[in-house]
Amino acid sequence: MEDFEQLLESFEQQNQAAEGEVLKGTVLKIDGEDVVVDVGLKSEGIVRLREFVDASGVAQVHPGDVIDVVIERESGERGLRLSHEKAARLRLWDELEHAADQATIIHGRVTERTKGGLACDIGVKAFLPGSQLDVRPVRNLDAFIGTDVRVRVIKLNKKRGNIVVSRKAVLQEELEARRAQTLETLAEGQVVTGVVKNVTEYGVFVDVGGLDGLLHVSDLSWGRVAHPNEMVQPNDEITVKVLKFDKAKLRVSLGFKQLLPDPWADAKDRYPIGAHVHGKVVSITDYGCFVELEQGIEGLIHISELSWSKRTKHPGKIVALEQPLEAVVLDVNPNDRRMSLSLRQAQSNPWESLPERFAPGSIVEGRVRNLTDFGAFVEIEDGIDGLVHISDFSWTKRIQHPSEVVKKGDKVRAKILSIDVDNRRLSLGIRQLEPDAWETFFAHRQLGEVLTGKVLRLAAFGAFVEMEGGIEGLCHNSEINPEVTEGGPLVVGREYEFKIIKLSPHDKKIGLSLRAALHDSEREIIDSYRHSPATAGATIGETVSLKQAEQ
Q1: Which of 32, 34, 37 is nearest to 65 (CA)?
Q2: Residue 535 resides in a domain
Q3: Which of 97, 127, 215, 507 has the greatest CB tally within 10 Å of its CB?
């Protein structure tokens, strides 16, 4: 009876088994290139040995192993033709269908780039769209080729053999779980560890437990940071401090420098006023340059503190970026995080030794550096300029602008008139190289003398007359003889005989008279002819007329 039931069961199994159905079989033996398998049917089945060969070429099958097979053909020369590979694929599809229904996470490996995404091996070839790769857009899909990924099946068509998977779904769920936990525990002042997600010019975005926090560039370091990528890169794991946390808006502000002591806290003790310090130029502006003494500590050297003697419109002509230099601390204000420095006070003041090198009265030589309406600046040595005032170019000439005498770049000689060390002023004179023409004139001339002079210019009150040495005198209208000018003014450029009627050395003024000079001339004629036999008995008027006629 039992034998009959076994035969009936075998018959039913044989009639139920069909091509494409997955069966369990036991490996009986390995026969050459075939594996003989007992599937409990009327005849044994044959599976190709190559279906069990691994990547190294070794067959991973042994007698007694229970394996999955599927019938390819009902009969063959040696029995049923079976396939282990097809059975594995069919079994895998069943598992994938179950994974899709249960939203189970499965493991795969990205194998290649395809249109719109990547190919992912999860036992069968699945499509991983680029939009389903990460919670953020991914620009470089090729970077994922060859990597292991955790995905979910989001679409499956067994008939067509199509499977679509998503890595984003797995990450999103994990992110939300971590975010929920973070929202419960995160607090301002807390020190947390996060992963750098993105680096921009204005700061760094850090993932702290599923929340994106902003680490602003100003909170990266106490020192100067040109760009955040100088300090961190994407995927770096960093420790930060929570500065602000808005739970409602899910906004987190982070700080990195706050984990370190503030260098300004004791800056006043470490950098006392008057101390000599060393640093490098990190920034140059129109009004000065900033010098970094240490990370987080910078001082400003104002343009007025760059040099004792050099005058410049821009600090870049004296200092350069990254230039190391020594400076003196002028002021420290920790509250405003400001420090004032001086470059020139770290150097000797050339003005202090100027009187020793150039005593007043000494002759110097220099080049005209600049012209102004009131004079010319002459550089007598590097950075030391002296002013030749417009009144110190000539004793006698009336100069309206220095350009009438010198040009920029001219090499000139001058005499040092005075040195003001405190105000850094040096007065020079060019006319002082020659004797004072006025002193010479007053020393050799006296009232009553008659001199020849040339009319330079006319004024409403009289005429200015040039005499010897370029000295000018004034002949007032009341001292002009109408008989000589025929009732009109004096002629500019014409020479006349003038008598000195006023000398004022203190005011450097000379009064002249054409009338008095003519009167003296007439008296000389009268005196000379009064004693002449040729004019005996003539009247005075006749004598003068005769003398003038002879002349």
Answers
A1: 37
A2: no
A3: 215
Q: In the listed set 398, 433, 468, which residue is the last one of a domain according to the structure?
A: 433
| Residue 75 pLDDT level (bands cut at 50, 70, 90) | low
pLDDT per residue over 246-286, tens digit each?
888 889 999 999 898 889 989 999 999 999 999 999 999 99
Between CA 123 and CA 109 the distance in angstroms is: 9
Report, in angstroms and rounded to the nearest whole number, the Rg of the chain calculated over CA atoms. Answer: 56
DSSP-derived secondary structure letter, 122: S
Q: Does the pLDDT at position 62 exceed 70?
A: yes
Beta strands per DSSP E along 124-210: 125-129, 148-157, 162-166, 191-199, 203-208
User: Which one-letter amino acid corresponds to residue 416?
Assistant: I
What's the domain count of the chain? 6
Can you tell me the distance from the alpha carbon of 216 to that of 204, in angstroms, rounded to the nearest whole number?
Answer: 6
What residue type is 197 in one-letter code?
A: K
Task: In whole angstroms, give the CA distance from residue 279 to residue 343.
Answer: 11
Q: Burial of 60 by CB count in 10 Å (0-12 exposed, 13-18 middle, 19+ buried)? A: exposed
| Integer angstrom CA distances of residue 423 from 315, 332, 352, 371, 420 | 21, 26, 11, 20, 6
Mean pLDDT confidence for 150-176: 86
Taking alpha carbons only, the member of 515, 489, 488, 487 closest to residue 501 is 515
3-state secondary structure of 22: strand
Percentage above 70 pLDDT, the chain: 89
Tell me how far CA of residue 133 lies from CA of 109, 130, 198, 249, 530, in angstroms: 13, 5, 17, 26, 136
Domain holding 122, by residue range, is: 103-171
Residue by residue, DSSP assigns 236-266 as -EEEEEEEEEETTTTEEEEESGGGS--TTTT
Phi, then psi, of 534 in degrees rounded to 5: -70, -20
Structure tokens at 427: 């007065």
For 444-470, the pLDDT digits (tens) are: 888 888 889 999 889 989 999 988 878
Q: Provide the token pair at 269.
A: 């003790």
Segment of 5-19, 30-44, 227-241, 303-317 carrying the highest mean pLDDT: 227-241
**What is the predicted pLDDT for the residue at 123?**
79
- How is residue 77 annotated by DSSP? S
What is the pTM (predicted TM-score) of this model?
0.48
The runs of H, that is alpha helices, within 42-147 are 84-102
